[in-house]
Amino acid sequence: MLLISYDHHFETERAVSAESRTRVLVTPPRRSLPQTRRLRPAAAGVTPLPAHRFYNFGHINARSLAPRLDEINLLLEQQKLDILCVSESWLRPDISSRVLVFPGYTISRCDRTGPPRSRAPRGGGVAILTREQFRLNKLDIGGADPAVESLWLSVTGPGRRTVIVGAIYRPPGSSTARGLELIEEQLRAATATGKPLVVLGDFNFYMLDDLKPGTRDFKRIINDVNLMQLVEEPTHIHPTPTLLDLILTNQTDLQSSARVLPEPVADHQPVIFSAPVGRQRRPRPAPVTTRPWRRMNWDAFCLRLLTADWDRLYSTAAVDGKLAAFMGVWSAAVDELCPFVTVSRRRPDCPWLRDNPDIDTAIEERDTARHTWRRSRSAEARRDYQLSRNRLKGLLARAKREFLCNDLLTDRAGACHPAGAV
C-alpha cells in the first residue's frame, strides 16, 4: 500500500513538472522597457511614427480651433502629419489645452492677448501640433504682435534632424509696412540658425496678383533671405480664388511635394508637403597640404644652413640674384627637413572663431575653471565651471549667428550689385 502511494505521488509530480516545462516553453519572453514603450502608441490607438525619415507638414486656417477638433484629428490621421500649423486658432489664455484633445500630439500655442470677456476683436492666434515623441524648444522669435502673430519651435524627431518650424498669421487689417518689417526680421533670425527651416501660415498677401498692396515687397523679402515658396494653387476659394496660405523653406527640390487638399476646413483649404530631413552626417573637412612646423628640427636646420654652399650668393652682384640664391638654399633646407604633408582636419573650418578676443578669453576662463574643478572636486568649483562653459556656448552661438547673417547680407548685396555694374 505504501509502495502504491509512493508511485502515485511520483507519477503526479512528474506530470506536474512536465506541465510546468510545457508552460514555460510556450510562454512568450518578457519584453524590455524600450520594446514596451514602442508598443504603447499602437495599443492606445495612436498612429505610430512612419519608418522613413521625412517630416510631413501641414497648415490650415481653422477660424476657431475648438469647434473643429474632429476635422483636425481626421486630417492628422488621413495625411499622417507630423507637424500641423494652425492659423486663426481663436484661442484665449483662459482656454485650457486639456480640452483640446489631439491623441498622440502636443499643442503649442501663441494666443491673441487680451483680458477675458473683453470687447477686443475676436480671431487671431496661432498653434502648432507636433507628435508627442518629438522634442520641442520654443524660440525667442516673434510673438503676439498686432501686425504679425507668430510661433517658432525647434523640433527634433527620432532619427531626424532638428528643423525650425514657424507658424505665422498676418491679420488682413493690420499695417502692411509694419507686417513686412516684422516678417523680414523673423525670417532672418530663423535663417541665421543654419538649420532646415519651414514656415507655414496665412500671410494675407495675394500672391497671384503683384498689384495688390505688399505682394511685391513680400516676394522680395522671400528672395532676399534665400527661401522658396512652394504653394502654387489658390487656397482661399470664396469669393475670388486667391493664394493666401504659404509654405516657405530653405530646402531645395521640394516643389513637387506641396499639395493643396480639395476638402476645405472653414473657408481655407489645407496645404501639406513632405521634407526629407533625416539626420545629417557631419561632412568631412577637405584635406589640407601644409608643413609640420612643430616637428621641425631647428638644430639640424641651422646646421644645414651652415654647411650649405653660399658661393653663388657671394659671387652675384645684383640684389635680385642674391635673393634668389639665398632662397634657393633656404627652400632646399626646408624641403629636406620639413617637407609638405597632406592632413585631414578633424573639424570643419569655423571662420566666426577667428580674431575674436571675447571667445579667446572665454575659452581660457573655461579651461581654468575646469582644471580647478578637476583638482578640488568641490561644488563651488563645479558651479564656476558650468557658468564659464555656458557663457562660452552663448558667445559661440552669437558669433555664428552674426557671421551667417553678415554672410547672407554680403551675398545678397553682391548679387544685387555685381562687380563692374554701373
Describe the protein's architecture and organization:
This protein is an alpha+beta fold. It folds into 3 domains: 50-276, Endonuclease/exonuclease/phosphatase (Deoxyribonuclease I, Chain A, 4-Layer Sandwich), CATH 3.60.10.10; 288-343, no CATH class; 351-412. Helices cover 39% and strands 17% of the residues. It has helices spanning 2-26, 33-43, 69-79, 176-191, 215-224, 298-306, 311-315, 319-337, 357-376, 379-416, and strands at residues 54-61, 83-87, 105-110, 126-131, 135-138, 149-156, 162-169, 197-202, 228-229, 245-249, 259-260, 271-276, 288-290, 341-343. The longest helix has 38 residues, at 379-416.
Key words describing this protein structure:
3 domains; 422 residues; 17% strand; disordered N terminus; 14 strands; single chain; six-stranded mixed β-sheet; alpha+beta; Deoxyribonuclease I, Chain A
